[in-house]
Amino acid sequence: MEKKQPLFIKTLGDSPKARVLFYLIWTREMDICLTDLARNSKVSRTTLLKMWKSLIKDKILIHTRDIGRAKMFKLNEDDLKNYEEIEKILEL
Fold first, then answer.
1. Of 4, 29, 31, 85, which one has the greatest count of Cβ atoms within 10 A?
2. What are the C-alpha distances in Å from 29 to residues 11, 49, 78?
């Protein structure tokens, strides 16, 4: 049986970047480390590392805190103006 993809992924295509962005939007109220983001978005750590600098530079991710050696990041919600539209896209 084929797993149903969220509309967000169907619309943007099943790419690593789309999966990462989907997961970040879905968990926008939590902060997350790079390892957990890779695991939960089903993107390899190597692939995520390739896009990591641009996510930080473009301020899509913002640093929230450090837990031991782990740096925690969160989706920059300042750029997300219309949560209702996002929830509609995500089929929440």
1. 31
2. 23, 22, 12
Structure tokens at 72: 């925690």
58-68 tens-digit pLDDT: 888 899 999 99
User: At residue 58, what are phi and psi to the nearest 5 degrees?
Assistant: -80, 5
pLDDT digits (tens, 9 = 90+) for 15-31: 888 888 888 888 888 99
C-alpha dihedral sign at 55, 3, 8, 92: negative
The CA distance from 91 to 86, in Å, is: 9
d(CA 62, CA 88): 24
70 and 33 in contact (C-beta within 8 Å)?
yes
Sign of the C-alpha dihedral computed for residues 5, 44, 36 and 89 taken in this order: negative
